[in-house]
Amino acid sequence: FTVTTFGESHGPAIGCVVDGCPPGLAIAPEDFRADLDRRATGRSRHTSQRREADEVEILSGVYEGRTTGTPIGLLIRNTDARSKDYRELTETFRPGHADYTYWHKYGIRDPRGGGRSSARETTMRVAAAVIAKKWLAERYGVRVRGHLAQIGALVPRRFDWDAVEDNPFFWPDPDMVAELEGYVDALRKAGDSVGARVTVVADGVPVGWGEPVYGKLDAELASALMSINAVKGVEIGAGFAAVAQTGTQHRDEITPEGFLSNHAGGILGGIASGQPVVASIALKPTSSILVPGRSVNLAGEPVQVRTIGRHDPCVGIRATPIAEAMVALVLIDQALRHRAQCGDVGEVAPRVPGSRA
Ligand code: EPS
Fold first, then answer.
1. Would you say residue 356 lies in a domain?
2. In sequence order, what E strands does 1-132 have?
3. What's the predicted TM-score (pTM) here?
4. 92: β partners
5. Which residues have a Cβ under 8 Å from the Cβ of 337 and sit 6 or more positions away?
6. How far is it, in rounded angstroms, from Cα 132 to Cα 130?
7. DSSP label at 154?
8. How many domains are contained in the chain?
9. In principle, which of 91, 95, 132, 210 could form an S-S bond with 328, CB 3.0–4.6 Å?
10. Is 83 domain-assigned?
11. Is residue 151 packed enough to be buried (19+ CB in 10 Å), middle (13-18) or exposed (0-12)?
12. In the prediction, which pLDDT does 115 show?
């Protein structure tokens, strides 16, 4: 199961090709609505005010409402790109932004805007993952969901999954939403930005998905999650907290009733243990901010850069559906690989006598 995207933030459209989807899955344009709205800009005052319709057109791979097994082409037209000439922006480099490395690598600046480095690209990852999520849920009862786990220094004081979808931050503590609103409002007014942590939990992943050495489930998750714009860290289960743990604290003891904890994040030796798969990402603060910062221009001369435009004070606020998407895309790929090698879940692989399996 592979996905590739195309399109620029200020081009006419963005799109993706999804290859390897099993045939027979019911897919309609309205299936994409909920997750695309969860990710979209302009849905609250706490994100970029660009207002995109994000209407998906299914170009191929679906016939009479069902996937055919051939490549699925999805297209979303950009409707609010406001492609005025940002030439001034292309004469300098925003500190902390990819425009510095893109320029040194390609030698071309797109005066229309962020182009491929824009978070606009993640729209198509979320769209592709709608297909993955649906197949995983229907075929195996797997549910992939996420939440914001930290913004700046703020962490939830209590946890309630039911609260996550009731606020624009995907925040699991309903008592703190007003505090978050005040915090993000103050940041935006100050022209600054902040980082965040997002956690994704996949329930119902059957034991066995994943590869033991190359293509480990955790390695694939790390790679996929790290490919999201602004991600600077990935943790599986206890992650870096494992550094300070002892073996007795970290190991997840096993009883006939099941595991007693989940520090492993549902993955042992690169293979799903049957526990919830838990992955977290650290997102850096948005680099496009109003507070001037030192940089250089194309001639290498010192300049002050201040970025105006419709930017997010915290990219992490919209990152929950994107992180869920990358986890779902990895899981469907691992599910298909596992099925190809070992057969389907429930189709118990032959156990060699004495193997204690
Ligand atoms: C983004 C900058 C803004 C955001 C954009 C992400 O857009 P523009 O390219 O118009 O300045 O609005 O997000 C989206 C359009 C989207 O759909 O996520 C950036 O620099 O990453």
1. no
2. 2-7, 13-19, 56-60, 62-63, 66-67, 72-77
3. 0.96
4. 297
5. 211, 215
6. 5
7. B
8. 1
9. 132
10. yes
11. buried
12. 86
Segment holding 88, helix H or strand E: none
Kindly state whether residue 352 falls inside one of the protein's structural domains. no
Please check the confidence at residue 352 and state whether its pLDDT lies above 60.
Answer: no
**Structure token pair of residue 109:** 């600046």
CA of 4 to the centre of ligand 1 (A): 19
Nearest CA-CA partner of 89 in 68, 103, 70: 103
Tell which atom from ligand 1 comes closest to the C-alpha of 42: 12
Could you list the residues known to form a binding site for NADP(+), using ranges: 39, 45
Residue nearest to atom 14 of ligand 1 (CA): 120
* Residue 310 confidence (pLDDT) above 90: no
> Ligand 1 centroid to 39 CA: how many Å?
12
CATH classification at residue 156: 3.60.150.10
- Please work out, in degrees rounded to the nearest 5, the angle formed at the alpha carbon of residue 82 by the alpha carbons of 80 and 88: 150
- How many angstroms is it from 105 CA to the middle of ligand 1? 22
Q: From the CB of 307, is ligand 1 less than 6 Å away?
A: no
Contact (CB, 8 A) for 131 and 67: yes
Q: Which residues contact 243 (CB under 8 A, 6 or more apart)?
A: none
* CA of 29 relative to ligand 1 center, distance in Å: 23
Expressed as residue numbers, the domain containing 137 is: 2-342
217-244 pLDDT, tens digit per residue, is 999 999 999 999 999 999 999 999 999 9
Residue 11 lies in a domain: yes
Closest approach atom of ligand 1 to CA 50? 12
Residue 357: its pLDDT value, please?
Answer: 44
Instruction: Give the ipTM.
Output: 0.94
Q: Are 149 and 201 in contact (CB under 8 A)?
A: no
pLDDT on residue 109: 86
Amino acid at 242: A
Token pair 């995983």 is found at: 136
